[in-house]
Structure formats: structure tokens, C-alpha cells
Write a structure and sequence with these properties.
The protein has 188 residues and is mainly α. The chain has one domain (33-175): Orthogonal Bundle (Transferase(Phosphotransferase), domain 1). It is 51% helix and 2% strand. A two-stranded antiparallel ribbon has the order 1-2. Helix 2 (50-66) runs antiparallel to helix 7 (141-175), helix 5 packs antiparallel against helix 6 and helix 6 runs antiparallel to helix 7. The chain is globular.
């Protein structure tokens, strides 16, 4: 089985030394894949930050480990309502086969309150690596190492997309030139 990362949803980048983020989406509009939205994103709050992305990575990991997303509903609206009003279930409440250390990392990423989540992707990656080392001695190394590797790839891809988007915007701002995507009409 191969895992492919297809969509990280929308992005918002705050250039260093600025207080106004560059946004690819409008404030006040919930945009993204509902199953992986953070509570603040599902509420269409304007102060969505990087911790929302870490919540989304946690939701993906939750599904990889348990076989289902953290919030399940009949419709997208129902899922969004659950995300806005209910905490995600704990990983081990859904699948007791998941190592406690790994489950603790995912549970922290899925904290309802942003202040309780990891402060950065680097911190989350370190916690996954530590959980991997802890679990290795208990005979679950292969699955945990795969999880840590997949997580590192997912976090790295998120950071690469953010950096590329930032650099494209910074280049556009510095030169005043916008490059049309390949194959796009140039208004002729």
C-alpha cells in the first residue's frame, strides 16, 4: 500500500516581520475538507493559524490508525457541526490496538482548544519520533515507524507548499509581475 498526499486544503502565510498574513481564502468562510477541519476552521474564524494545520494532520493520523475520521456524520454540515461542538474521541477509545505513546501524540494534535495543541510542526514531529522510539521496544516498531515517517512527510509537504506559496507571493510583490500558470489564457 502506498500513501499519497493529495490535498492540504487552503493556506495562509504570514511573512516574517509582518502582522498581516497573505491569504488565499477569504476570512469568515469555512473552506477545506470537512473531515479534517479544526474547530476554528469549521467555525469560519478569521484567526485560523498553523495550529489548525496540526489539527488536520492529527485528523489524518487518527483515520490512519483507527480506520475512521475523528468526526463522522451523514452530511458535510453534520460533520462541521460535530467538529465545532464536540471534542474528537481519544484514539484508544476507538482502537485499543494503537500504542499509548502514539495515541497521546494524536490526541494532543486533536485538542479542541488551540492552546492545548503542539506549538509547532517541529514539536509534533519530535513527539512522534519519541513515541516511535518508546514503542519500538514493545514490538510495534514497524507500524509506528511507518506512522512517524508518513507524518514527517506530511508535515514536510505542508511546509514546502507554504514556503512555495510565500515565495511566489513575495516574488510577485517585489517585481509587480504575476506569472500565469502553464496553459492559462493571457487574455488575448
Amino acid at each position: 500500500m502506498n500513501a499519497k498526499i493529495l490535498d492540504f486544503g487552503m493556506s495562509k502565510i504570514q511573512p516574517p516581520g509582518t502582522t498581516i498574513p497573505l491569504s488565499l481564502t477569504r476570512s469568515g468562510v469555512a473552506v477545506g475538507t470537512p473531515l479534517y477541519m479544526s474547530p476554528e476552521q469549521a467555525s469560519a474564524r478569521s484567526d485560523v493559524d498553523a495550529k489548525s494545520d496540526l489539527y488536520s494532520v492529527g485528523a489524518i493520523l487518527f483515520e490512519c490508525l483507527t480506520g475512521r475520521p475523528p468526526h463522522v456524520g451523514e452530511t458535510s454540515d453534520a460533520v462541521i457541526h460535530l467538529i465545532r461542538t464536540r471534542r474528537a474521541p481519544r484514539v484508544r477509545d476507538v482502537s485499543s490496538r494503537v500504542a499509548k505513546d502514539v495515541a497521546a501524540v494524536v490526541d494532543k494534535a486533536l485538542s479542541f482548544e488551540r492552546a492545548e495543541r503542539f506549538a509547532s510542526a517541529t514539536e509534533m514531529r519530535a513527539a512522534l519520533a519519541a513515541a516511535s522510539l518508546e514503542t519500538r521496544g514493545r514490538g510495534r516498531a514497524r507500524r509506528t515507524l511507518w506512522l512517524a515517517g508518513a507524518s514527517a512527510i506530511a508535515i514536510g509537504a505542508m511546509l514546502a507548499v507554504a514556503a512555495a506559496t510565500f515565495l511566489r507571493g513575495a516574488n510577485r510583490a517585489a517585481t509587480g509581475v504575476e506569472v500565469a500558470p502553464k496553459g492559462a489564457s493571457r487574455g488575448r
